[in-house]
Target: ABC transporter ATP-binding protein
Amino acid sequence: MKKKWKVFVRAVCFVARDIPAIWPLAALTAVTEAAGPYIEIFLSAAILSELASESRSMEHLFFLAVLMAGLNFLASAFSRFCGYALETLRYLLMQHLDEAVADKAWRMDYKLLGDSKVHGQKKTINNWLYDHGMVAMVIQFQTLLQALVTIGISIALTVEFFRARAQGDGGLARFLNHWSFPVLFLVLFALAILYNNWAEGKTQKRQYRFTKDMEGYSNQRTELMKACCAEYHRGKDVRVFHEQKMLLGKFERLNDTIAGLWEKASASFRRLGVSSVLVSRLFNLFVYLAVGLKAVCRAFDVGNLLKYTGMVTQLGEGVTGLFNTARAAFENIRYLEDYFAYQDMPNRTADAVRPVSSDIRDNYEFEFRHVTFTYPGAAVPSLTDVSCRFGKGEKIAVVGRNGSGKTTLIKLLCRLYDPQEGQILLNGVDIREYRYEEYLKFFSTVFQDYCIFAFTLGENVAAESEYDRKKAVRALEGAGFGPRFRTLKDGLDTQLFKNFSEDGVELSGGEGQKVAIARCLYKDAPHAMLDEPTAALDPVAEADIYQRMNQFIRGKGAIYISHRLSSCHFCSRILVFEGGKLEEQGTHEALLEARGLYYKLWHAQAKYYQEEA
Model:
């Protein structure tokens, strides 16, 4: 319970810091909405009493009617104003929570992004973010306070109701005036409230359990829908290979599973809902009977009959609302715990405090010292006991068969993962000691699975909304995108792809690679790393790109991964990987003379090109 209380207080403080006005506005809205019904109850009772009076005054009746209409209008208008303002702040809170979830995904350790459990956790939070958690907490606070105000006013009127004495000496009058009558009233009232609270609690628990049971299937369905419908570039494979039937079958099976879970849960919800409504209606029947009997025994006039009936109804709704909302608020803490568990995932890459000084940038050396790394969930290491050095000004080619560990080398260097054994050093210091954001500024990288966003061309090159336009154009020219760029009427402001604009420009695979390379050149970092940067280009275009890049990064260090061994000619050293191990390293000529693995790869590829010729 103590832990839940801490989570609740943390959430309250989070909302208060994020949107300070939301709690006072929720309180004002609650008081306004709670007081509104009593205006009508009191003034309607006064009008009815005046009508029943023998000395009734038309002027007084008119005054009461106008007063009730005016106060009702003002209360309703003010309540709506507060409600709309609160809804606006709640929507703002939703946006901020959305941003916080996305920001956490961007800041968390990269290895966690590939964890299916973490991915599912994020998807689940996104599914309920607008209906539960902190957004629901604001509504629950308003409902609780509204219920408390309603109960306070109703209790005062209930005491007045019990103190009204029935007239006459009959058994009914004596019973209504006896202490046993209010005791019976309160016992039945308590039983009705307790039952409804129990039923609501069972419903809330089953709802949460149902949500948990559903989340895996819902996430799968969302991903399947995204793959089938939202990502249009997959439509080519779906049509060419006639995958529609297979995908539809998977979708239908998921829907059947979800429908079965919902049918099972909804049957339980229906039973609890019907029984709760039945108990409430039976108690209301008793209330109307009790108030009516007191009126028959002349305990009060006909106007008060309306007032007390409305009062008891409001009291019942207030207490029911209080218990139900308190129960919902308690159950809602589970969602808050899930949210904060996600936000509290450690960002180990952010723990380092050592700065990357300008001296290091001007003269640096990286060293892999007996590095071994295994991907999470994998049984076989991707790199085993790798040791090598490279520094400023060196152009390193990394070659090897598929799955030999080439891309893993770059991922470790970028600290997307940390090795389980060994160290990666920068000027003799473990790279885990350097400030992560400063360390990443060391690299301009083009990954094999690079990403081009559906933003403008300039934003994709600069990775920013505000950027140096001349520098962006130079980077595009350096990446060989110049001829295509000059055909774009909007230049750097050209919208890429059609996700957000009907006029969006589609890029070919080779053009996309050139834009990714331009992004690397624009960053102008001390060390460039390119993983298959020209895989989608023809050999002539590839040679042109490498020549341009060498001019751009002259004097800087670079690592090139490529299956086309012809790109190794201009590199000062070549690292040859096989099965996760560094088998050979040296210059192109030295490795050919050694007649090892590189020699075999080189001649196998040369033979292919000779046959083509």
User: Anything to note?
Assistant: The two ends are 77 Å apart (CA to CA). Residues 356-442+527-613 form a domain with the Rossmann fold fold (CATH 3.40.50.300).
